[in-house]
Amino acid sequence: MITLDSVTLTFPDGGSRIRAVDDVSLTVRPGTITGLTGPSGSGKSSLLAVAATLIRPDSGTVIIDDIDTAALDLAGAARLRRERIGLIFQQSNLLPSLTAREQLTVMNELGGRRGAKAAANARADELLERVGLAEHGHKRPHQLSGGQRQRVNIARALTNEPSVLIVDEPTSALDSERSQQIMQLLVELTTGSSIATLLVTHDLSLTPHLHDLRHMMDGRLVDA
Ligand code: ADP
Ligand code: MG
After folding, report:
1. CB atoms within 10 A of CB 109
2. From atom 12 of ligand 1, which residue's Cα is the shortest distance away?
3. Which positions ≥6 away from 100 have C-beta within 8 Å?
4. How far is the CA of 44 from the centre of ligand 1 (A)?
5. Tens of pLDDT along 143-196?
6. What is the CA(46)–ligand 1 centre distance, in A?
7. Does domain 2-96+162-222 have CATH number 3.40.50.300?
8. Residues with CB under 6 A from ligand 1
9. 62, 97, 98, 139: least buried by Cβ within 10 Å?
10. CA of 13 to the centre of ligand 1 (A)
């Protein structure tokens, strides 16, 4: 669950500061997707960064599940992200030299737990199957389509069974049919695993998939 209460985030802007997020309160419950639309520069990505605990707000509270993130130090926030938050962005940020399956296991291998490799491989195969890529685990990014790369990205975000997914324009590089499929997949994963998903999209044809839709303007949530 994501609970934002009166969140404000400013950035320096010449001599003054710009309110990228201005007094935003928002709740996303487990098993639901809240969509966020709004013009470029309205603060959508900034709001996601705050919800993902990547940036600390100037004021207001960010609660993930039942954890008040203001109480966490940097290591605590990193651990919260690793254990509870999945991030999916427009660019898939896959490593070119790794297979789809390795994209999902590399973090566990870097973590270095002994004997964890077989478990990580089994988990990767299960996730690839869930996103419809069971037959493609051996392929590298250049051998996959844009939609398939985004599926790998989604599977990777699910590796640690997050309770929260933060998704920024996941379909902006895809055609409309692939976009619908990716959105459908995100809905299935969100409801099937009781995840609280906050998702920015420009594409209004995708919004029927969502449980809730909010609009942003000049850093504020506004009525449609
Ligand atoms: P959106 O995702 O809706 O396009 P952003 O959240 O990226 O909007 O940006 C909101 C506002 O905050 C914009 O005016 C942008 O220029 C500003 N902004 C975003 N990130 C930074 C940053 N790191 N430093 C300074 N200003 C920023
Ligand atoms: Mg943005």
Report:
1. 13
2. 20
3. 128, 133, 136, 137, 138, 139, 140, 141, 144, 148, 152, 155
4. 8
5. 999 899 999 999 999 998 999 999 999 988 888 888 899 999 999 999 999 999
6. 6
7. yes
8. 11, 18, 20, 38, 40-46
9. 97
10. 10
